[in-house]
Amino acid sequence: MSVEFINPFINATINVLKTMADMDPTPLKPRLKNITQSFGDVTSIIGLAGRRTKGSFAVSFSEACIVRIVSRMLGDEVTEGSEEIQDAVGEITNMISGGARAELEKKGYSLEMAIPTIVSGRGHSIKHITNFPIIVVPFRTEAGPFFVEACLKEEGSLS
Amino acid sequence: MSVEFINPFINATINVLKTMADMDPTPLKPRLKNITQSFGDVTSIIGLAGRRTKGSFAVSFSEACIVRIVSRMLGDEVTEGSEEIQDAVGEITNMISGGARAELEKKGYSLEMAIPTIVSGRGHSIKHITNFPIIVVPFRTEAGPFFVEACLKEEGSLS
After folding, report:
1. Which among A15, A32, A78, A126 is placed 20 to 30 Å from B102, CA to CA?
2. What pLDDT is attached to residue A159?
3. Which residues are CB-neighbours of A106 under 8 A, at least 6 positions away?
4. Closest residue by Cα to residue A30 from A48, A9, A16, A47
């Protein structure tokens, strides 16, 4: 599988943040993630699984960045660490992965989405356990950066 | 769906830790998770997804507990925060969810496994975004407690 599988996730991220929070995040150059890195304070993770293709998608925000995004989504200032933030991040994740899934389906990859899980805690790191390429895309926003990362593997190909 | 879906995860956890680390973890009473709670320092999350059923499974360890488990698995003392620990936790997660998946399949639930993601960071909390019941099972071990949690939803059922 080519690393181009990341493009549907980039497109969906831009669309969802534009629609939900009227924001225009700028994707920077995708890169391979080959070491564990600390990415953020609030991370959402969702599994993707089909009969032949498996994957994981995560989006990771600093506290300041997600507070701004969710405040714009809800039209009201939210506070750090609130449940509103976790629920909104879950919704954002479902929408991004749903959009990416639809685009991947057109390319012939059949995947179902699992249930998103939100991790909260200052400066945690995340690592996907796979030998397939993990692609990280930093996004720039007016409220600071956030990171999208995804990996997909196809069974039957070399791992 | 009855909350009995948790039993295959409990059984698989006991089997995997017995086989891999010669440990006999004792499951305590399963409980509903209805607030976000801080569970651990190292958490592994894996999505499960089929056409009708979706879910998420997580296992969360204190640093002391996972250091002991992985040291026993590898027959060698491992150090806190090492990559060996993350890889071993990924392997444990794949084995537990694989075992649970096989048992759930016998009960008529068809699920594929996504790729596990490991989160590391002192005292992080996790929250699954679903209105379906999330079941948490604390386990007691000689090296301290760990927690297994899972949720499954069936499409077509309420919420």
Report:
1. A126
2. 44
3. none
4. A9
Instruction: For residues B88 and B94, give the distance between their C-alpha atoms in angstroms, rounded to a whole number.
Output: 10
Beta strands in B28-158 (DSSP E): 31-32, 37-49, 53-61, 112-113, 117-128, 134-140, 146-154
Instruction: List chain A residues with pLDDT less than 50.
Output: 158-159
Q: Which residues of A touch B57 (CB under 8 A)?
A: none
Q: How many CB pairs under 8 A join A and B?
A: 148
**Window 73-132 of B, Cβ < 8 Å to A:** 83, 86-87, 90-91, 93-94, 111-130
Domains plus CATH for chain A? Answer: 3-154 (3.40.1550.10)
Determine whether the interchain pair B56/A47 forms a contact, defined as Cβ–Cβ distance below 8 Å: yes
**Inter-chain residue contact B125 with A121, CB threshold 8 Å:** yes
Closest CA to B132 of B48, B28, B62: B48
| Substitution target from B83, B110, B117, B159 for chain A, most A beta carbons within 10 A | B117
The pTM assigned to this predicted structure is 0.90
Q: What is the pLDDT of residues A113-129, one digit of tens each?
A: 999 999 998 889 899 99
* B96-139 pLDDT, tens digit each: 999 999 999 999 899 999 999 999 988 898 999 988 889 999 99
Give the Cα separation of A3 and A6 in Å (integer): 6
* List of E strands, chain A: 26-27, 31-32, 37-49, 53-61, 112-113, 117-128, 134-140, 146-154
